[in-house]
Amino acid sequence: MKVAVLDIKGKETGRSIELSDAVYGIEPNKHAVYLDVKQYLAHQRQGTHKSKERAEIAGSTRKIKKQKGTGTARAGSIKSPVFRGGGRIFGPRPKDYKQKLNKNLKRLARKSALSIKTNEKAILVVEDFNFDAPKTKDFKNVLKSLGLENKKSLFVLGDSNNNVYLSSRNLKGSEVITNSDLSTYKILNANNIVLLEGSLEGIESNLTKQ
């Protein structure tokens, strides 16, 4: 599948590039996409939630009132969960939310996500560019030229580029990553994917490994 290569002003360079049908033109596997997105979101959870249970509360162990004759239920400890300030019954404990998926399924999910975006005509190929210094204004000009000013966009670079990354960091709707950081969630979460020429070889290499 041929795609026109654009410059940072949004104009065609007169060149086109062939995108692999094995990566951008497969029949999307929705279940693989679901599993990969589910894993990504699970890994965002810290799992550090914790509340103190009865044995962990600091307090006196003295019996707080006599056993009989008060007209109320018997009570032995101020740390009981039924009292204000007592321990919590079955409170949350630290937990590891990580999930395991095999590499082939994750590759299938990412190829499916890229194919979905290709079908939606939401993928742009732009020639590699750089800035002399980190400037948010320069990156906003690129977004405006590409018609992505008010859309969620994901820029995929071949290699890390500090000036481009820092220029985009203050913009809420845009994210810049390298091809090795490409995930199913990030692909689907963006309205448009901007692939720099230098990223294409790495993406295809990563997703067509056996």
From TrEMBL:
It holds the Pfam family Ribosomal_L4. Signal peptide: none annotated. Residues 45-77 are annotated as: Disordered. GO terms for biological process: translation. InterPro entries: Ribosomal_uL4, Ribosomal_uL4-like, Ribosomal_uL4_dom_sf. Keywords: Ribonucleoprotein, Ribosomal protein, RNA-binding, rRNA-binding. GO terms for cellular component: ribonucleoprotein complex; ribosome. GO terms for molecular function: rRNA binding; structural constituent of ribosome. PANTHER family: 50S RIBOSOMAL PROTEIN L4, LARGE RIBOSOMAL SUBUNIT PROTEIN UL4M. Belongs to the universal ribosomal protein uL4 family. Forms part of the polypeptide exit tunnel. One of the primary rRNA binding proteins, this protein initially binds near the 5'-end of the 23S rRNA. It is important during the early stages of 50S assembly. It makes multiple contacts with different domains of the 23S rRNA in the assembled 50S subunit and ribosome. Part of the 50S ribosomal subunit. This is Large ribosomal subunit protein uL4. The gene is rplD.
